[in-house]
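Researcher: Go.
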Amino acid sequence: MGAMIILLTMGILIVIWMISGTIPYLMWLELKSLSPRAFLVAAAIITSVSPLLTGTSWGTGATFGVALMGVAYGLGVPLPAAMGAVVVGSHLGDKISPVSDTTVLAAAVAEVDVIDHIKSMLWTTMPGYILSLIAYAIVGMSISGTIDYSQVNSILTALEQNFKLNPVTLIPPILLLLLAALRVPTIPVLWVAILVAISLALWQGYDISTIVKHHCECYGQGSAHSNWGRDSRQTP
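Model: Structure:
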């Protein structure tokens, strides 16, 4: 039941982080700073840190993963490889996180200390993770010549035109990581991040009815992203 609640909450979080400008700003930063050669390695590392603190691979894939896939598309990085890097990083962090529900459950069933359980998993998880990073580094060397900079620039322009790209939009993920580090339970952490992001969505120009509409479209039709943009915001 707890896992289902987390999954449903993540659906809300994805939509709110998108319209609040959090995910667009992360995409904008990464498009500005990440090189195609380093992207796969960076994606695996980035997505392994978040679940280590939050204990949720789903949450990481739905937030940082979504942003990184957008960046991969813009940089011309093969999307299957990018998805693989996200999955590798998020599941590694989840498995070795002391706040992960599956890790805690496995330790409880085996009647061992959760930290001892994590230490024992490092012998099998870390070699695979390191080998993956090496593979991503090798693959990254071969994709530097495939970048369509006009496409990158068009994505950057679209983000700049449709969102207020400001460091303040990073408050929700920063809060999420800080609260998770303080061992606050996952579901309350997610809702704090959602409520803060709602205030940012209002700052972006959306009204409450539009925010609710996007959520209904997301759950009812799976197309909440179809009309995101200034045309769905309040008229100044």
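Model: The first helix runs from residue 2 to 19.
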